[in-house]
């Protein structure tokens, strides 16, 4: 299974294309559609997965869904956040009076809303998902074949901010404890570099000590 990384438009957000030479799925929607089209190289896109609803990760979700004719999977807790610039972080990028026509008019008929933990069964891929609120109430991590896609919950040597709209320190603590009990080989985050499970074990322990002091 190949993992390709594109850099998105805002904060060098990571957009992942995961799969083989014929089929794939996309994680997060921060790169412009034309760039994703080039990287897909004609493969069938079986699904589009959002790690959370913040603007930098979700801005092009509707465009991807329409072009690739694929469902978007997202936490049900992100429905109110994704379309509101005061909640999804758009104001941080585009100013206090910004109102994204793309996200404010988002078509939820193309979305499958997820709750709790479970599995997404695509034609050629089975993906586990884990609710990991804290950075955002709608944060989800996805796991497939030993690879964890953690969004902004955990990074290489740090964790996601918990000072944003509806961030929650106590939820982050519980999410870190959950991730500490999940087995994987490599972790790809929403920004920055990948990390190994050993590196994340250290990162999570240090972060929990800091949050619980």
Question: Keyphrases for this structure?
Answer:
alpha/beta, 213 residues, 6-stranded mixed sheet, globular, single chain, 8 helices, 29% strand
Mind sketching the topology for me?
Elements: E1 2-7, E2 14-19, E3 23-27, H1 33-40, E4 44-49, H2 55-58, H3 61-68, E5 72-75, H4 79-82, H5 90-94, H6 101-104, E6 111-114, E7 118-121, E8 126-131, E9 140-144, E10 147-151, E11 154-155, E12 158-159, H7 169-179, E13 186-189, E14 195-196, H8 197-211
Parallel strand pairs: 3-4, 4-5, 5-6, 10-13
Antiparallel strand pairs: 1-2, 2-3, 7-8, 8-9, 9-10, 11-12, 13-14
User: How much beta, percentage-wise?
Assistant: 25-35%
Q: How many beta-strand runs?
A: 14
Question: Quick one: biggest sheet?
Answer: 6 strands, mixed
Structural class: alpha/beta
**Low-confidence regions:** none
Taking the alpha carbons of the first and last residues, their distance comes to 40 Å
Give the strand order, joined by hyphens, for the main sheet.
Answer: 1-2-3-4-5-6
Note the total helix count.
Answer: 8
Overall pLDDT metric: 95
Task: Please outline what is shown here.
The chain has 213 residues and is an alpha/beta fold. It has helices at residues 33-40, 55-58, 61-68, 79-82, 90-94, 101-104, 169-179, 197-211; strands spanning 2-7, 14-19, 23-27, 44-49, 72-75, 111-114, 118-121, 126-131, 140-144, 147-151, 154-155, 158-159, 186-189, 195-196. It has a six-stranded mixed beta sheet. The chain has a six-stranded mixed beta sheet with strand order 7-8-9-10-13-14.
